[in-house]
Design brief:
ATP hydrolysis activity; Rossmann fold; 30% strand; four-stranded antiparallel β-sheet; 33% helix; 298 residues; single chain; binds adenosine-5'-triphosphate; six-stranded mixed β-sheet; ABC transporter ATP-binding protein; ABC_transporter_ATP-binding; elongated; alpha/beta; 2 domains; Alpha-Beta Plaits; ATP-binding; nucleotide-binding
């Protein structure tokens, strides 16, 4: 496979703080990689290193595409107050010999014709994000990096955005995107890289990460719980179940491998499946809920 970027044992510090610790990562041509992590995990710093905006303190980064073949959508964009959508599109397109044509731009933005004459800052949050995206891909980059692209988008704009990403992917664009939305990795990511406190905790397919259920969750209505309280507390104690309350339900959480025994105990006490709701807590949810301990393997 042809590599687009390679990071070898990269460490980045801001003063004494290690924000990225010994990161090694390869992205191959045509791959779509989701970089997932909580606030402050180091996602934007990693992107800045790839873009050459910061130097690493240790390690090497090799970008195989030319700089002008890389498109970048940053988390926040700023434009002068007195520039229209049309003017900015024309300005950015003027740097490329093969810029997107009007029809392609219309397909991305889905703006009415009159909107092009509007000042950029009068766009809604979602419209502005689509506009940012359009500028990022106006020169048809081979490698596209997008940092939290869907912030501020409503559901239909978000769906449209992911459709555009899918089309880019079908045309062979290599994509690296960051997101806080666990469900967004399902749209077009081939791989999910989980960054946690500056360390890569997982690098695998979305399917693989989703199926790694570390915990089971059982919700029981408080009214029902009260009827069987003594017996339920005994079961909870014997399996060391984490018990919490949320409005009118009691939630039990326990390791997946205890599922059969816990459910059988509930049925023995007299609860029926109609009284309980059983759900899986995925690995991704677990990590985002800050519940994964350092020792837990992925
Ligand atoms: N220029 C800088 N100087 C000092 N510290 C910085 C700088 N840039 C980032 N940091 C720190 O590095 C850590 C990682 O920040 P980064 O922006 O990479 O995280 P992130 O995963 O992108 O977070 P978010 O999801 O909130 O955007 C944070 O603690 C942040 O305060």
């Amino acid at each position: 496979m042809t590599q687009v970027i390679t990071l070898n044992n990269v460490t980045k510090k801001f003063k004494e703080k290690e924000v990225l610790k010994n990161i090694s990562l390869e992205i191959n041509q045509g791959e779509c990689v989701a970089l997932l992590g909580k606030n402050g995990a180091g996602k934007s710093t990693l992107i800045s290193l790839i873009l050459g905006l910061f130097y690493p303190n240790e390690g090497e980064i090799e970008l195989y595409d030319k700089k002008e073949e890389v498109g970048f959508l940053s988390q926040k964009t700023r434009f002068p107050d007195d520039v229209t959508i049309q003017e900015m599109l024309g300005f950015v397109a003027s740097f490329s010999s093969n810029a997107l044509n009007k029809e392609e731009i219309d397909h991305i933005l889905k703006f009415e014709e009159s909107k092009y004459k509007q000042l950029i800052h009068t766009c809604s949050g979602g419209e502005q994000r689509l506009f940012d995206m359009c500028l990022a891909i106006i020169n048809r980059p081979k490698f596209l990096i997008v940092d939290e692209p869907t912030a501020g988008m409503d559901t239909s704009t978000r769906n449209h955005f992911w459709q555009v990403m899918e089309e880019l992917k079908e045309r062979g664009t290599t994509i690296l995107f960051t997101t806080h939305y666990v469900e967004e990795v399902d749209y077009c990511a081939d791989r999910v890289v989980l960054l946690d406190d500056g360390v890569i905790r997982a690098d695998n397919t979305p399917y693989h990460l989703r199926t790694l259920n570390k915990r089971k969750r059982v919700a029981i209505e408080k009214e029902t719980y009260t009827l069987f309280e003594k017996e339920l507390n005994e079961v909870a104690d014997s399996f060391k179940i984490t018990v919490s309350e949320k409005s009118d339900i009691i939630i039990w959480e326990f390791k997946n491998n205890l599922s059969n025994e816990v459910i059988q105990s509930l049925l023995r006490i007299g609860l029926s499946f109609e009284n309980i709701e059983v759900t899986n807590t995925s690995l991704l949810n677990t990590i985002f809920a800050n519940e994964l301990s350092e020792e837990e393997e992925i």
